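Record now logged underneath.
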Amino acid sequence: QVQLVESGGGLVQAGGSLRLSCAASGFTLEDDAIGWFRQAAGKGREGVTCISGSDGTIWYGDTVKGRFTISRDNAKNTVYLQMNSLKPEDTAVYYCNERGVYWGQGTQVTVSS
């Protein structure tokens, strides 16, 4: 069974950094598209970034370009989201997903001003 477990969330001051991890089991993540989404209180779920399983191409949402970086460690079967220059509007629960089908339980990121 596909399992995704997010970790690394927490409370950080504006301008700070966090690195989120998405540990996968039940599949080899390098073969599948992996994405990060987030959902802030009172808002819908927003696509943050994704990495293609075919050629490794990467997409970023406009609000995070230049600040967030997605990467994967195939040996660890883990995808990372490096989040720099965090803003209060980045506050949300962050989820990773496989092919937009399987989802982790999320990790809370709170950015204080």
Observations:
- The chain has a mean pLDDT of 95.
- The chain is about 0% helix and 55% strand.
- The two ends are 40 Å apart (CA to CA).
